[in-house]
Amino acid sequence: MIPELGHFALSLAFALALAQAFFGLAGAWQRRPRWMAVTDSAVVGQVVCVALAFAALVHAFVVHDFSVAYVANNSNSALPVLFRVSAVWGAHEGSLLLWIFILALWSVAVAAFSKSLPASFRARVLGMLGLISVGFMSFTLGTSNPFLRLIPAAADGADLNPLLQDFALAVHPPMLYTGYVGTAVAFAFACAAMLEGKLDATWARWTRPWTTVAWLFLTMGIALGSWWAYYELGWGGWWFWDPVENASFMPWLMSTALIHSLAVTEKRGLFKSWTLLLAIFAFSLSLLGTFLVRSGVLVSVHSFASDPARGVFILGLLSFFILGSLVLYAWRAPLLASTAGFGWLSREAFLLLNNVLLVVAAALILLGTLWPLFMDAFSLGKISVGPPYFNAVFLVPGLPLVAAIGIGMHSVWKHSKLQPKKNLFIILACIGVAGALSVLAWLGHFSVLSVVGFTAAIFVMGSAVVEPWQRWRGGHTVPAAVLGMSLAHFGVAMFTIGVTGVETAKVERDVALGIGDSANVAGYTFKLVSTRPVQGPNYNATEAEVLITHGGEAVATLHPQKRTYWVRTMPMTEAGIDVGFHRDLFAALGEDLGQGRWSMRLQYKPLIRFIWLGALVMAIGGLLAVVDRRYRVKKPVADSDTAQV
Amino acid sequence: MERKLLNRFLWPAVATLVLFGVFFFTLHRISSGDLIVSDIPSPLIGKVAPPMDLPALTGPTERVRTTDFKGRPWMLNVWGTWCPACRDEHAALLQLAQVSGIPIVGLNWKDDAGEARRYLDGLGNPYFAVGSDPVGRTAIDWGVYGAPETFLIGPDGHILAKYIGPMTMEVWEKRLKPKLAVGTLQ
Q1: Which one of A44, A404, B21, B108 is at 20 to 30 Å from A535 when CA atoms are compared?
Q2: Beta strand pairing call for B53-58 and A597-606
Q3: Residues in B touching A318 (Cβ below 8 Å)
Q4: Average pLDDT, chain B
Q5: A384 to chain B, minimum CA–CA distance in Å?
């Protein structure tokens, strides 16, 4: 009964989304206040209905209702309750429902926090969000209904994919989807502004906090995914350039570009058309990511469930939104002429450089991701594009980008006034080189690229600290947005340090060890002390005890496991990791070689924590920028008074 | 102004349309069965099958060897009890063993012999013989990187085709059987 109620609630939500789209867009077009007023009720009704549908599915999982096909395929009576809840978004149908739920939450948030916007603009934003909702709900109801019954009911479920039975992966999809869906908000604002025909700086001002929130969730989501892959997949890598990872990284690059370009549009009224295009592209790439993951056109370790019929549907949605928004853009482009000029080393110029580099990076990744598809479609042979391509091409825009941050933070609007900062730059560069060399001496490795990487990172860290400090010393208050900006850039520098450290000095060894044998990895001795069987709630495992010593002193004891989950009888590695600020020590159990011998993967990963800490710091920076009260405008104002940021 | 406008709109629109054309074409090929995304050509196709000499899990002889099948076509199916997709294809293999008239040889990959026997007792045994490869050495020689995988070997001992993923009767009819006809004619 409850699953049917869920299905009904979702259908009702679909009707309300239709109403929201129609009354929002048509109401603003026809200038009918009553129609526009309906959108609010529709938004609230929609979120209530979607929440009910979502709760119905959660309930089906929690009470083990194996008469629901989706539950029977993705849960099991032995599955712990936390994973029964996260199993809701463990496969295609449920993750779409999560997508819709998050979109509904975003819509309610937009409705609640934008009361001060002009009524017609607000109605158009909500109408666009309703339209996106309609698209995704028809997709779910039409091709991927999570409430379908299984007749007769299964005695027990086929279990959640063991790879997904993990805390980080329980949290990762909601975070990532919040980010993905957040790009829809920026898109809705851009479309509303184009429909409205008022493409001055104000729409950029209203869009900024929303974009930043979306971006910070996307940052956290990607970082969580990377962290999960590191300890769960058993390879010890942190990024694989898998199509699905790329699908989340491209919208991130675009949102980052959008955040910066919105700043220029808001403060200086420049880059207007560029900003609109970025908002369109960021959302398009989010949709493209959904398409690539769900349609199965690319080989990926993440393609848990794919179906070409669903692919055609998403492709339809994608074409509708991209082509529709481009038509809108072409229609409004003549309004977008901007006349203001700026100097070569002004803040505008640096932000333009930032945008160009980020977009180039996204384009190179898009090219690499889709290249195999093109080759195959034009019968040019089967190829796969892997990490060697991506690692190489990402450096091309990546390194200049980091370097430009350090200098760009000190630039000012309009004028090229970097001359007075020359001494500061020289000092920071010296500190950077000295720091880089000492870190490399400690790591015991050296390469030109690593010197460049560390120097740039330390330079940026210095800049990020000096910039707000100088403001404060000069007697100015430091706004939260500026602190947030500095902190986020500090995070980028930390991330750069992590990547440079790991890629220069990591040591990975695959060895065969018997009980009592040891192996040496980067000065650390890993000794396999014992193995013993252990039992979890829904799996059996072999747990090894690995003692690590350094110069005769005990450093850590690790307990890597090799698990076999009962239902899917799939072997899984649970790596043992000794976490340290300056390095991780990693041991994973491979195959049982017989006679007590095991193949083992032992790794030394210097500075790897900086990668995820950096992402966390970036996200906190974003959060600080959002809480800046200047963005909680009571009234739409022309912003000449706050132009000096 | 007009021309500029056209340029601005035209290029993104054209690029998008080309992209979507390729997507649509790919989806069409997937749903019509012309394209199998996970189907990566094996360098072994057309080459002599790598040697195999494994202890038999089940079968008429004590060992399972490549040379046992000289002069007739056969299939090698890589499986393990730990692989859910192998369970999916099991019914198809049972049917295929009846229909094709070609012996299917199992390569029990990185598995426990006792569990593998119980699995075959429970679900039925489609295999002419099963070789046991607990460490995966033979699988490496054959370039296996995931189960299930199925090879078709001609009477002359050359590999005619390889299919990655769960076997179905449709795959057999469309992708393997035609290769067999060509292989025997040569």
Answers
A1: B108
A2: unpaired
A3: 20
A4: 82
A5: 9
**CATH number of B53-185: 1.10.12.10, 3.40.50.300, 3.40.30.10, 3.40.800.10?**
3.40.30.10
Q: Of the candidates B183, B132, B175, B186, which has an alpha carbon nearest to the alpha carbon of residue B159?
A: B183
Hey, are the CB atoms on B82 and A295 less than 8 Å from each other?
Answer: no
Which residues in chain A have Cβ-Cβ distances shorter than 8 Å to B8?
Answer: 273, 329-330, 333
Chain B residues in contact with A382 by the CB 8 A cut-off are 40-41
Question: pLDDT band at B165, cuts 50/70/90?
Answer: confident
Range with the lowest mean pLDDT among A43-52, A225-234, A509-518, B91-100?
A225-234
* Tens-digit pLDDT profile for residues A9-40: 999 999 999 999 999 999 999 999 999 999 99
Inter-chain contacts counted by CB atoms under 8 A, chains A and B: 80
Are B179 and B152 contacting, i.e. CB atoms less than 8 angstroms apart?
yes
- Which of A329-333, A439-443, A505-509, B92-96 is the least confident region? A329-333
> How far apart, in Å, are the Cα atoms of B90 and each of A12, A578, B128?
42, 42, 14
Q: At what angle do helices A243-268 and A201-232 cross, to 10 degrees?
A: 150
* Structure tokens belonging to residue A633: 């405008």
Distances (CA, A) of A153 to A5, A145, A371: 18, 17, 44
Residue A633 has pLDDT above 60, yes or no: no
Is A382 within 8 Å of B136 when comparing Cβ atoms? no
Do B9 and A323 lie within an 8 Å CB cutoff?
Answer: no
Residues in chain B with CB shorter than 8 Å from the CB of A569 are 81-82, 84
pLDDT, greater one: A189 or A638: A189
Chain B neighbors of A564, CB-CB under 8 A: 82
For the ranges A46-60, A354-368, B94-108, B167-181, the lowest mean pLDDT is seen at: B167-181
Residue with token string 């040569």: B186
Distance CA A212, CA A214 (A): 5
CA gap A93, A119 in Å, rounded: 36
Task: Note whether B20 contacts A376, CB cutoff 8 Å.
Answer: no
CB of A249 within 8 A of CB of A166?
no
Cross-chain Cβ contact B83/A308 below 8 Å: no
Per-position DSSP letters for A528-562, written without gaps between them: EEEEEEEE-SSEEEEEEEEEEEETTEEEEEE--EE
- What CA–CA distances, in Å, run from B155 to A50, B54, B74, B77? 60, 20, 8, 17
Would you state the pLDDT for residue A360? 94
Q: Could you tell me the pTM of the whole model? A: 0.83
Whether residue B23 and residue A373 make contact (CB cut-off 8 A), yes or no, is yes
Length reported for chain B:
186
Q: Would the CB atoms of B16 and A593 count as touching at under 8 Å? A: no
Which position has the higher pLDDT, B28 or A253?
A: A253
Highest mean pLDDT among A152-156, A258-262, A292-296, A379-383: A258-262
Best to test chain A binding among B10, B24, B27 (most A CBs inside 10 Å): B27
CB contact B182 to A (< 8 Å): no
ipTM over 0.90: no
Residues of B in contact with A315 (CB under 8 A): 20, 23-24, 27
3-state SS, one letter per residue, for A37-82:
HHHHHHHHHHHHHHHHHHHHHHHHHHCCCCCEHHHHHHCCCCCCHH
